[in-house]
Design brief:
Blueprint (H helix, E strand, L loop, with lengths): L2 H12 L21 H15 L7 H4 L3 H14 L9
Helix pairs in contact: 1-2
Length: 87
């Protein structure tokens, strides 16, 4: 499973929407229910799913799914590898 597929699954679970499809260009405003409170909880869900800590800056640093994926990839690499997730 690629990082994008795994992230999409996390978001589908979080938003309880099995049909949710995100692309690198998707922004939070494109996803129904993704408001500022959801942003905080989405970051926590991603941290738990990927076993990483994105930190407080992640709450405001990404404007798109593509940027979020780059942050996740960088954090995974800095913590010792991809953990069996392909790009």
């Amino acid at each position: 499973m690629t990082l994008h597929e795994r992230l999409q699954e996390v978001l589908r679970t979080f938003f309880n929407d099995d049909e949710l499809v995100v692309t690198a260009e998707t922004v939070p405003a494109d996803v129904p229910g993704w408001d500022s409170l959801a942003q905080v909880n989405v970051v926590f869900a991603i941290e738990e799913a990927f076993g990483i800590e994105l930190g407080d800056e992640a709450l405001s640093r990404f404007a798109s799914i593509g940027e979020l994926e780059r942050q996740i990839t960088a954090r995974l690499k800095s913590q010792g590898g991809q953990r069996d997730i392909a790009n």
